Amino acid sequence: MSTGKRQRGAAWWLLLMALALASAHLLLAGSHPGRDDLAVRMARAKEALIARAVNDANRPGSLPCPDRLTDSAGMNNVPGDGRADLFTLTRCPTYVGWLPWATLELPETTDASGNRLWYVLAPGLRDDDSAQPINSDTATGLQLDDDTGVAALLIAGGPPLTGQRRPSALPGDHLDAANGDGDDHRYVSRANGQPFNDRVLAITGRELMAAVGKRVAAEVSACLAAHAASPANRAHRYPWPAPAGGPPGRGLKGSLFGRLPATEPGNGLQAALGDTRTTLSELGQRIAAGDMTSDLLDLLRELDAGLVHARNLADALAASASRIRQAALAVGNSLAQLDATLVAATGNDRISVTEGRTIRSRSAASDDTLAALAEALADTGFDPHPWHSRRLAGELAGDPMPAQREAAIDAARTLLSASRSERADIVASLAAATQAAELAQAAALAAAAAPGSPELGEAAKSAAGALGNALRQLAETVDAGRCRVGAGEIGELADLLAGTGGGELIAVPADRYQLVGQRVTAVACRIPSVAAARNEALAALQIGNGASIEGAIEALRRLAAAMATHEAIEGNLTRSSLRAASERYTLASGSFAEIDTRTPRPVQRDIVPYAESVRAAAVDLAFWAKIIAEQGESVAPAARSQSADGQPDDSAYRAAEDALSALNDRNGSRSLLESYLKAPGNARLSGASEARTATLAALDTVLQRLGGLEALSTAGPAAAAPMVWGAARCDFLRPVVRSWWSENAWHDTVFYQIGQPLSAGEARLAVNGQRRYRLVAVAAGRALPGQARGPSSGIAAYLEGGNADPSRDGGATSPATDWYVMPPSGNFNDRLAYRP
Fold first, then answer.
1. Cα 648–Cα 651–Cα 657 angle in degrees, nearest 5
2. I need a labelling partner for 568 at 20 to 30 A (CA). Which of 142, 313, 427, 826 fits?
3. Bridge partners of 766?
4. Are 742 and 171 spatial neighbours (Cβ–Cβ below 8 Å)?
């Protein structure tokens, strides 16, 4: 916070009155007239401070500076005015002063003698970036008696003692014994053998963070519920948690407990694009056909969630594309250095000891970059092969110049010769495309040898066109194997039906039945075994003729089994080809290392063939790295442009942001429709209609951009794609946003559990014995004695009692379903939020 920026008050302090009154404790010394009235006033001041900390938008848990030193009429802030002092650079001018009652929106608060209440702030909780992170584990830097974890103190100084002069702004003229000795960090509630009449009320770090933790858990719970309810989340599923002790932020399929994920396994970004386009298109049609009623307002709210999802998906695609591009460029650079060394060494027709050592070192460096590229492809699911095949087919279309045609044919032959797959349908398409490439090359050579022959020219053109068709067919074959819905999800749908019991299918709740039908219909792959099982499942889901829940479940399990068999065979043609090229490279570099380090070392000339083998294998890898980098370079700006201000931005992200503005701005369609519904009139009706038209036009642009992005983003199932949050309630989790969540490191101490992946399922979680919840979020309090926290710590380092059940460690695929809520104490400080 800059000098001169006024700290915010807390208008909602009444929300926490009951909490603060219940937890407040007065540490008293001496006796004062009006004691009970003062206790109430001090308790209310405590409530206001806690509420201020809880409701802070940027740093939950932070508190305002005291009022004592800032003296600036121009900034409307002078000593004793009840306004918090302004920061001096990044620090409060003082950490002991008067209560900033005006900042807290309280009446002026005094003790029985008419003296203002004194207020001491823990330096570690000041409301400034330099204090971050502020969370449950923040060291406060303030001590009362033996408690070193105090957040703030309220002190009523009482009548002056001997030697104290008033009026005065010096703490020693109001506070007694150690409280007035100038040490801003150590205070006492009593002073044996010394004159002392201070009345001290503490806000402990534990009770402050108990209230803040409740707010944090509630925010997380609301986000997860909104994400599951989003229309763009077609399966209405919760994200897979990132297990405690596992890779940070990496959601694990099958896990039911852990931290919020930054990445998640799933059907892949291209499938997400297809689902998002379908959702937005359907909403657009319903909005266009809707009347100006509250139902239309509900649709506009759904559109808001869909557009938020589209924006966040574009962000995820841009990040993923940038990641594979950077990884591929690193491979290319590493291999280029290796190639330069190999060319220089083999050019002398010998490999010296020094050259051999350099080749081995650079080969090892390439191994590291190759591993990173393979991981990036697996995590994001990108498969540039179909994209590149279609690009080459486009270059062969029409009537290109002979030189351009020959270059495209050569590129296609290189691609096809380097391609490898174990899937039978892809192997067949590769063989057909390879044959077409050989025919196209032969026809091109014949035409080049007889440039005056129209017949040979037409034959070359026809053969090139056939090769283009074969390349397109190859790309379609690869895409046809992507089911867009995973086998695991079909199994979850079967479990969802099983949770309704047995009997006729008509007994299934409508929302569950509709969800199952929609997701089975969305199974898009055209693999014969999967397509047949899908049709059987759809038939078993038809209500009527005694159709049973058991029959539908059996059909869904057969479909899941067929899909699992299909998924077991690698369908990502780039990954299977890169893996084969990497194996050849590993074999060649291993053979070179073995001969180069053999004792006695062979004749230098005899090592040259081994070096040449390494170079040939490296050329294949460099080819794949180049294609991968090119796809990443194409996708990233189409998803989210990094162009300078004022430059055209045709990205999907920009289109989604513009559509959100058309929807939510002051003159947006939601606002104007709300105005019309509150006070109908022709003018307002016209304005709302025009705003709807503008929103639909912006939506059309979004759909066009997403369609273009889908064509570029050929991808399959992803092991750890960036998490795409589907609701504005989750904006604090966006990686591109500096928020209270990221800046204060709450991700380490907040966990959640789901009863099952689909929010439509039955409630399986219990809180204090009440088994009616689908979701529980929990914020861990400050580490208690014996809790040692670290990257691989188990859950007992964060939670207490039954909440620290060891079944919540590891993958947490079957964690305990019981949770417990208790008042914060020295043995328990978990804060829970839960939803049915």
1. 95
2. 313
3. 771, 818
4. no
